[in-house]
């Protein structure tokens, strides 16, 4: 073997993740065969089905075990279930949908991925009061020196309740203060959302400690107990399992593996969690994705059938949410969202006029988020406690209060956006905190009666990774794990077997909604349901999902579908201009189609950003990575009108052209950033060619992406939605409608 071959093998050991792949590569080098990317993919298909850890995984696991020995101590409550591990590429393929199984640690991502140290809030203003056993507040005198200014002494603390303003989901008020204390004070039975303020000798506030608390309410318990008894008598459920949903914003399954390995490994190895390998998002942003997950509907269906207006309160559709169904069955319901302004239910929306669940700690979240003293320079901290930990403590309270008794089931929904919304890599900061939470949750014993749903809404929407080849895949592939109690696996092996079969079938939020409905009701009919049909948009994962299911069958829009293949291509300048013009014209149509207050964007011929350097994948032996899987597209013949939300703000048709010109700047085309040729097994013989096109515009350097169909002799046509894939904060403040903001660059 030549010296350069040995060097190549050494590099493969460092950059690729399978011993067998290294051996296969060595064999090819000995035979002087070309090291094409296609050969690498084929070798992966021929791997043995052993579940030996990869070289890179062993090294990383060893390092993490050494660094986190204390964290890895697992409670005795251990799942003895063999974990599912990701297999070769063909394990997530079917007759119709070939789904991406890209390497989260691909060398191409190395320069784009960032890893951060664990959350550290020690530099913030300390929380000098803590809640002790027996519901007693106590002053931690060891923290006073850090909180006090020179020459000042500690004086006293008092407690105030944080109350929700009637008829508002964005305001709060404080109750009257309690008696003063400087050592301890017993918490009142009726206090739920409280803040404890402490003062120095000059009457200056030196610390605030926030406590979102779970407190049993006599009237609520009586109402829910009655509902539970009715549910048992009328429906005769086989089980009453609590349901706990923990979501993180903007996390692809690949990024979850990169950024949170401790948490992911605990779910798989210690909790026997079942991961959905072919889980596909439904929409660009959080709201429509979680709406489908929690209601089984799209926003458009609520606009049309429920006459819901996004500018009004969401109470009108609250009955459609799973937590409302759960409450009717006697479940205690809770929800906590770590952000008060950018949640799915509050960004450009009013939220809920009446609390949608029994335990709704939004007032505490709002109050603590606006507290400059306790937030300091680290918005992920509330004093010297991380925001993530504070949310987790709340759920641990719920689990300890209701989780051990099957006659007091609960439904909890949690969604964290603060840490990852702007940069998904920041999730690595919370890995150890989430691991501790899972360990503590297991230790409560509540998971003996609970199904844990660990999920994300979509992959990254912005940033360097999103703009890369891998990002075009990751944006459509969120993660989802089901974790059942150990006894459930033994008692209901048929349900588990069906769910494991469906791991490798195409699934979306609609299917998980149907699955959760089955878990809530859990009637004996769950065992007698027929296999799912291609005509059903949502199929419970306790039924067999059709192998030949497509994105169209599953209600997944073509532009977000991860079924298919795509590769970079070398296009003529003429065709590239047509594709780019079609995309910019579609952006123009969004603005001009019934929305009159915006000036039409002008098209100017731009210079390609990187198309000249791309190669046709059929002639490039190193483009195998680009021939992986991406999208299924619609072969519709008619140009569809722009899909403008039914509640989009209508601006006055009387606006003068001067006013229009002052609102949004005209955009010109800076360049065609990338063009990918999209193929699908079902449509290979079609004359219509489909391309995923990304353009960059001025001013604002906006990056817009869409699927564009082209047939020789006809005009190029945009299929589905246009999405903006870079951030535009501060560019569109003159526009209030959230859908239109992405297209506007304000003149002033």
UniProtKB/TrEMBL annotation:
Tree of life domain: Eukaryota
SUPFAM superfamilies: Alkaline phosphatase-like (SSF53649)
InterPro entries: Alkaline_phosphatase_core_sf, DUF229
Record-level GO cellular component terms: extracellular space
Listed name of the protein: Sulfatase N-terminal domain-containing protein
């Amino acid at each position: 073997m030549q010296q350069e071959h040995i060097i190549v093998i050494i590099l493969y050991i460092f950059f690729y993740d399978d011993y067998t792949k290294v051996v296969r590569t060595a064999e090819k080098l000995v035979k002087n065969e070309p090291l094409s990317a296609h050969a690498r993919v084929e070798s992966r298909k021929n791997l043995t089905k052993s579940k030996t850890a990869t070289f890179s995984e062993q090294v990383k696991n060893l390092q993490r075990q050494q660094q986190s020995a204390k964290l890895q101590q697992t409670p005795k409550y251990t799942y003895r279930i063999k974990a599912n591990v990701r297999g070769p590429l063909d394990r997530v393929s079917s007759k119709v949908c070939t789904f991406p199984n890209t390497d989260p640690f691909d060398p191409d991502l190395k320069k784009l991925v960032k890893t951060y140290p664990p959350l550290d809030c020690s530099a913030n203003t300390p929380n000098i009061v803590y809640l002790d056993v027996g519901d007693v507040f106590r002053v931690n005198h060891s923290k006073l020196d850090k909180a006090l200014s020179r020459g000042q002494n500690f004086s006293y603390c008092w407690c105030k309740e944080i109350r929700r303003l009637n008829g508002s989901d964005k305001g709060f008020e404080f109750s009257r203060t309690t008696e003063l204390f400087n050592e301890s004070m017993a918490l009142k039975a009726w206090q739920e959302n409280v803040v404890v303020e402490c003062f120095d000798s000059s009457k200056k506030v030196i610390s605030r400690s926030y406590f979102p608390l779970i407190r049993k309410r006599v009237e609520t318990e009586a109402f829910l107990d009655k509902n539970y008894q009715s549910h048992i008598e009328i429906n005769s459920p086989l089980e009453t399992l609590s349901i706990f949903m923990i979501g993180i914003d903007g996390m692809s399954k690949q990024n979850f593996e990169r950024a949170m390995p401790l948490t992911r490994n605990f779910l798989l190895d210690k909790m026997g969690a079942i991961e959905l390998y072919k889980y596909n998002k439904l929409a660009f942003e959080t709201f429509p994705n979680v709406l489908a997950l929690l209601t089984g509907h799209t926003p458009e269906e609520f606009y049309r059938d429920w006459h819901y207006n996004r500018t009004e309160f969401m109470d009108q559709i609250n009955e459609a949410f799973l937590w409302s169904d759960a409450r009717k069955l006697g479940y205690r319901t809770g929800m906590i969202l770590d952000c008060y302004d950018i949640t799915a239910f509050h960004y450009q929306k009013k939220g809920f006029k009446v609390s949608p669940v029994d335990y709704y700690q939004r007032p505490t979240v709002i109050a603590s988020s606006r507290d400059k003293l306790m937030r300091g320079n680290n918005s992920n901290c509330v004093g010297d406690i991380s925001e993530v930990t504070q949310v987790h403590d709340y759920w641990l309270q719920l689990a300890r209060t209701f989780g051990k008794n099957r006659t007091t089931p609960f439904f909890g929904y949690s969604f964290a956006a603060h840490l990852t919304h702007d940069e998904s890599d920041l999730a690595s900061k919370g890995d150890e905190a989430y691991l501790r939470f899972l360990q503590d949750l297991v230790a409560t014993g509540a998971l003996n009666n609970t199904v844990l749903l660990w999920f994300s809404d979509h992959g990254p929407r912005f940033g360097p990774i999103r703009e890369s080849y891998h990002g075009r895949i990751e944006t459509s592939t969120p993660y989802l794990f089901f974790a059942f109690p150990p006894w459930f696996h033994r008692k209901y092996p048929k349900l588990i077997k069906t769910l494991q079969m469906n791991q490798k079938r195409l699934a979306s939020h609609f299917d998980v909604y149907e699955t959760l409905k089955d878990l809530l009701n859990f009637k004996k009919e769950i065992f007698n349901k027929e296999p799912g049909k291609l005509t059903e948009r949502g199929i419970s994962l306790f039924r067999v999902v059709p192998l030949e299911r497509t994105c169209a069958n599953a209600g997944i829009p073509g532009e977000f579908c991860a079924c298919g293949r795509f590769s970079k291509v070398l296009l003529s300048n003429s065709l590239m201009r047509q594709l780019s013009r079609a995309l910019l014209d579609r952006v123009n149509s969004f603005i001009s189609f019934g929305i009159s207050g915006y000036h039409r964007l002008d098209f100017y011929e731009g210079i390609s950003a990187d198309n000249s350097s791309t190669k046709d994948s059929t002639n490039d032996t190193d483009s195998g990575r680009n021939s992986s899987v991406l999208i299924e597209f619609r072969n519709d013949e008619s140009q569809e009108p722009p899909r403008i939300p039914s509640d989009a703000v209508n601006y006055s048709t009387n606006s003068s052209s001067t006013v229009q010109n002052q609102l949004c700047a005209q955009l010109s085309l800076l360049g065609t950033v990338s063009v990918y040729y999209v193929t699908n097994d079902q449509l290979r013989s079609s004359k219509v060619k489909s391309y995923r096109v990304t353009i960059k515009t001025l001013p604002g350097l906006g990056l817009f992406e869409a699927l564009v169909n082209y047939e020789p002799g006809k005009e190029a046509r945009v299929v589905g939605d246009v999405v903006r894939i870079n951030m535009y904060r501060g560019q569109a403040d003159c526009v209030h409608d959230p859908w239109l903001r992405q297209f506007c660059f304000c003149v002033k």
